[in-house]
Amino acid sequence: MPINLIALRTSIITLLLLLSSLAVFGQSSNLQVVAMPGDGIYTLLRRHGLNPSEHLQKFVEMNKERFGKDNGLIAGKEYTLPEGATSAENNAVASDNTRVATETSKARSDVSAAPAKVAARVIEMPLFGEKYSRVEVKSSKLQGAVYYLSSGHGGPDPGAVGKYGSHDLAEDEYAYDVTIRLARVLMEHGATVYMIVQDPDNGIRDEGILKMDRNEVVYPNKPIPLNHSARLRQRTNAVNSLYLKHKGAYQRMLAIHVDSRSESQNIDVFFYHHENSKDGEQLAKNIHQTFTNKYRRYQPNRDYSGNVSQRSSLYVIKYSHPPTVFIELGNIRNVKDQRRFVIPDNRQALANWIYEGLLSDYSPE
Of 2, 96, 222, 360, which is most buried by a Cβ count within 10 Å? Predict the structure, then answer.
């Protein structure tokens, strides 16, 4: 026989593992899959087209000898899925590894293969807007990492407002644009990303003046209340609910805001963390170090004054379960700081630098 079928089958399985973190063994009606780092039962079931509320009990019965501590999945271990599961690379709904759109959005993930190399995976994410909706997964540097991104204010509350000539600059619009740009970069490197505040109408925008609106919702698709405490509680509850779902994974929360101070006060990007969170402090320091290095390189004639400090009283820092960093991007009322926001390339640079700090925290050299 000119083709060794056993060797060919082994090669196919290996390729599938590289492409989509899925291995299929045998030809039975029950799909066999391999759990990846950060996987929980709900994550695994949803990835393969199964509703956890309908299939959880059956899944547990079929795999009762294969769980780790607290019935958690063991990365690298094979699990049997109930009937009706689909292969991850053929699943039309984006997996939790690419979850950013609202639950009502149908985000498709496509895998294309090329000989002798792992092919790029292109994910369609409508939340990013038409121009940026196609996301090419370039690497797996952040695979297994889970990020919750929450831009400040939104809905009925624009946050701080600054004057830029005849225009109003709203905190929630600029914080959101940096946040959604960051989400896209994280996804390009394999991270699981949840946009806690979402604007279904405005994706990534390349305008200088971002129009103010009240269309933002909180994950998965809840209207944002007017009451300040209710808003903070709503988005913190969303994060904490998702945190339980990803128990055991590397999880981090970022709250991204724009400050409002005296018009004369030019400030650099600075970071808050909880006084008792060593992981939160380390994350803040890693991002801060990235900004320090970037300023040293691109603006060598001035000092970078952004700092890291404790602010345990802030609601999202105090009550969010994952280690949390609160980021202030600058003073929306200061002319110099406004250039950091109204120039789209600067907003992208902010997102890129935050990403590099997150990467150094997840994969320290």
Answer: 96
Q: Is the backbone of residue 259 left (phi > 0), alpha (psi -120 to 50) or beta? A: beta
Residues 6+ apart with CB under 8 A from 296: 304
> In whole angstroms, what is the distance from residue 79 CA to residue 73 CA?
9
To which H or E segment does residue 337 belong?
helix 335-342
- DSSP calls for 122-179: EEE-GGG-GGG-EEEE---TTTTEEEEEEES-BTTB--SEEEETTEEEEHHHHHHHHH
Question: Could you tell me the pTM of the whole model?
Answer: 0.70
The DSSP output letter for 327 is E
DSSP state of 95: P
The pLDDT tens digits for 40-55 are: 787 777 777 787 778 8
| Long-range contacts, 64-68 (Cβ 8 Å, 24+) | none
Residue 341: exposure state from Cβ atoms within 10 A (0-12, 13-18, ≥19)? buried
